[in-house]
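User: Here's a chain of 221 residues. Predict its fold as tokens.
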Amino acid sequence: MSASFLFDLDGTLVDTVYQHVEAWRQALTADAIQVPLWQIHRHVGMTGDLMLTALARELDLRFTDGQLDRVKQQHEAIYQQLTTDIQLLPGAKELLASLTDRRVAWAIATSGERASVQGSLDRLGVPDGVPVITGDRIEAAKPEPDIFIAAAEALHMPVAEAFVVGDSIWDLLAAQRAGALGIGLLTGGYGADELRGASAHRIYADPSDLLRHLHELGIAE
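Assistant: Prediction complete.
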């Protein structure tokens, strides 16, 4: 079996989860909607539309179409301000380079839109030939499996032979629904028990920890 890796981006390879949380809080507050930070954090990893729908259901809110568009636009503008200096998570660049050196195929699968994530891709140095599947290219967002299925198809490999690497329960639930093995990282603020409960096959602290333990996944030197 030839394994491949499908990586989430925010909170998995780049340290941007809490910037997203704060950007959503500010965007909602600007529209006179108060949502606790912890509650926003629980939905990071979803697309903006799905996150706002979930928050509306939980908080008994009603968003008009105009509000939805306004909040999403505000979030994007604030997020870009908060991420002028994007920080990679420990070992992220080295992990991707090591997989390339070992001739292990990999792709990026992120709920963010292409314009929003381009800075992170540039910081990681993602080569032009590596597939990048973004939220604006799929119909159903995580926890639906569409984005990981699309990423595997872009690699011309079966999704059932892929490792999905993510930091949130939404990544891992999507991996399970796709029939892939989920690898959880603790870099997004979810605990090991939560990731394990969402079907994580293995759990590592961060990309550098995963790199040190690739042999556990059958990836030879």
